[in-house]
Amino acid sequence: MKDFDWNHIRAFLATAEQGSLSAAARKLNLTQPTLGRQVSALEADLGVMLFERVGRSLHLTDAGAELLEHVRAMGAAADRVSLAASGQSQTIEGRVAITASDVYSAYLLPPILARLRQSAPKLVIDVVAGDDIRDIMRREADIAIRHVRPEQPDLIARLIRDSEGHFYAAPDYLDRRGRPKTVDDLKHHDFIGLSDIDRMLEYLHPMGFPISHDNFRAGSASGLVAWELCRQGLGIAPMDAGIAAKTKGVERVLPDLAPITFPIWLTTHRELHTSRKIRLVFDVLAEALAKP
């Protein structure tokens, strides 16, 4: 029975998932020629062709597709070994990656990281700012701050609290367009879109907000950019009350309106939670985020 080089298997898996040698090389931090040699070596060891080139892309052959099923299982097992090894580390030093929305990353995390630096100066915190769901199972992040509870059984999550949000606008915008007195007045105002407008409308319509796509005259997938558009007078935007309190140049719209509530979940991998450094960061985040 022939022993296969794990580097060759890993090169095949990355190429199959990325669809090209160049993308796979970037993912594995290798040069494209090196990655290509590793894939070719695996093909030579197996005596089959795993890819065929179609234009600039690589497509799996039937043999490659069959092998991919087994290799993915091997990759998942390797990830579990890495997670278990990380979880056994009892030294409070090294890298911990936290993923949160860009707004939370910019407004909420800096003072928390300053506190962590005092208690664990050897930690290196990597903030992965983004609104997409990062894959903790594949170690893109060690801890995630999200507004939805994860569904994967290997992840553990703690509901920190229900946060409150309101609508805000720049005073000069409200001076120009008038300050809404009722919810019905909002249909005459411009709104800032945050990422998926359809999703925003699905959330707001059951609450009685009479707005449509026509009200959204500017927006961005970046929460930071959308918030700055609001601050500079381009329209009304929803925001976490705590972050709005830290922002100069915005005014709450319809101050008597009931707040919009949304949960804050803190998530990590079950095995990583046994690591002292992950546990420390997780607990410090939980304590800090629990405060409105």
UniProtKB/TrEMBL annotation:
Highest classification ranks of the organism: Bacteria, Pseudomonadati, Pseudomonadota, Alphaproteobacteria, Rhodobacterales
Organism: Shimia haliotis
Gene Ontology biological process terms in this record: DNA-templated transcription
Entry's family note: Belongs to the LysR transcriptional regulatory family.
Keyword set, alphabetical order: DNA-binding, Transcription, Transcription regulation
Pfam family, one: LysR_substrate
Protein known as: Transcriptional regulator, LysR family
Top-level taxon in the UniProt lineage: Bacteria
An annotated Gene Ontology molecular function: DNA-binding transcription factor activity
Domain HTH lysR-type as annotated: residue spans: 4-61
Gene3D superfamilies: 3.40.190.290, Winged helix-like DNA-binding domain superfamily/Winged helix DNA-binding domain
Cited InterPro entries: LysR-type_TF_proteobact-type, LysR_HTH_N, LysR_subst-bd, WH-like_DNA-bd_sf, WH_DNA-bd_sf
Keyword Transcription regulation applies: yes
